[in-house]
Specification:
alpha+beta, Ribosomal Protein S8, Chain: A, domain 1, ten-stranded antiparallel beta sheet, 8 helices, 22% strand
Length: 285
């Protein structure tokens, strides 16, 4: 027994000073993957207003938004605000970590979440340069989801009948996505295909991208790294890709759902936003 104990106390071979590359003359040292260092968190910003009466219209709009946060969904136009009133809205709401773009044949919609979760700013660029701007309260602006996919269903079966050379697993993946898309109903749990864990060839990935096509809505969620969400041309099918802080792809997935949860503001967060906006309004007055 004592001999075994003595053996256990000896330093194991290959450990200790001089055993690692940085300790060896001319060694390059160990290279570790860069990890995220910063994450956006809510920091209250109180606009400085010398005379609240000078921004009465802006304050009234913030009051209306405060009430809307208590009873989502809610929408509020900003088209009639200008000058100091519009500046007050800009400063009070700021910019959060989720943004989106919806592109259509005749219009473009730019979406930016404010620092108050669940408060979204929409800029609608229409024909002839017409611009309209409004605020929406909710998990995510409904317009971005409603216009994400083409009205006509994509014919995946026809594409599967003649796959290009080199395709290995794309046929089964696309068949599964097509079935899940066709049978999806609102309220169903998301169906996720994790491409990072599945064997696939470059030809597989190219064929999947070609078969799924491109939808109208693209979302970027910036937080602990980035998450890029892109609607495909197949109803309720989204590409959801996660990147670390140095923009390296770390998780590649496809979700069948109305909208990936990572893009949405939670009910609890919207309730918190109502409380925070109330504090901002009180401080301004």
């Amino acid at each position: 027994m004592s001999g075994n104990l003595i053996g256990l106390t000896r330093p194991p071979v290959g450990y200790g000073p001089g055993s690692q590359p940085e300790d060896i003359e001319g060694g390059d040292g160990l290279n570790y993957l860069s990890m995220p260092k910063d994450m956006q968190v809510y920091a209250p910003h109180l606009p400085e207003v010398a005379d609240p009466a000078s921004v009465a219209a802006g304050l009234a709009r913030l009051d209306a938004l405060h009430e809307g946060l208590k009873h989502p969904p809610f929408s509020l136009s900003l088209d009639d605000l200008a000058g100091a009133d519009r500046a007050l809205i800009d400063e009070a709401l700021g910019e959060g970590e989720v943004s989106a773009v919806v592109t259509g044949p005749d219009e473009r919609i730019e979406i930016q979440e404010s620092t108050l979760a669940g408060v979204w700013r929409l800029r609608l660029h229409g024909r002839g340069g017409r611009l309209s701007e409004r605020l929406e309260v909710g998990g995510f602006p409904a317009m971005a989801v409603e216009r994400a996919f083409p009205g006509r269903r994509r014919d995946i079966a026809a594409l599967l009948a003649a796959p290009p050379p080199g395709v290995i697993n794309a046929l089964s993946i696309l068949s599964e996505l097509d079935f899940r898309s066709e049978t999806y109903e609102p309220g169903m749990l998301p169906h996720v295909v994790n491409l990072s864990l599945l064997p696939h060839s470059p030809e597989d990935m190219a064929f999947i991208a070609e078969a799924l096509g491109q939808g109208a809505t693209t979302i970027l969620s910036r937080g602990y790294g980035n998450c890029r969400i892109t609607a495909t041309a197949l109803q309720n099918v989204w590409l959801v890709r996660y990147y670390n802080s140095v923009d390296t792809l770390i998780l590649d997935t496809i979700e069948v759902t109305a909208l990936p949860e990572v893009a949405m503001a939670a009910i609890e967060d919207i309730a918190d936003s109502a409380e925070r906006l109330g504090e901002i309004i009180a401080a301004i007055r």
